[in-house]
Amino acid sequence: MTQTHSKSRQQAEIAFNDIQSQFSARGQAVQEPETEEQARQAKTLRLREARLARDAQEHTSR
């Protein structure tokens, strides 16, 4: 079932899809740094916990 649309409707659909693609790409560009920041914070937390555990173990073994 193929629908045929007028030329102006086709152009409007194309323009709408272009804007949607730009909006989606912009949203992804904003999310990427947030994801990187979350990963960095998680790594910092893991390293801090490992350091504190190591320091506590060294302190109790003295």
How is the topology of this model organized?
Layout: H1 7-60
What does this protein structure show overall?
- The chain is mostly helical and 62 residues long.
- The chain contains one helix and no strands.
- It is rod-shaped.
Give me the secondary-structure category: mainly alpha
Main β-sheet, in a few words?
none
Helix content: over 70%
- Give the overall form: rod-shaped
Low-confidence stretches: none
Mean of the pLDDT scores? 85
Number of strands: 0
Task: Report how far the terminal alpha carbons are from each other.
Answer: 81 Å
Count of helical stretches: 1
Following the backbone from N to C, one meets helices and strands in this order, namely: H
**Strand residues, percent:** under 5%
Integer-rounded radius of gyration: 26 Å
Structural key phrases:
single chain; 62 residues; mainly alpha; 1 helix; 0% strand; rod-shaped
Summarize the structure.
The protein contains 1 helix and no strands. With about 60 residues, it is mainly alpha-helical.
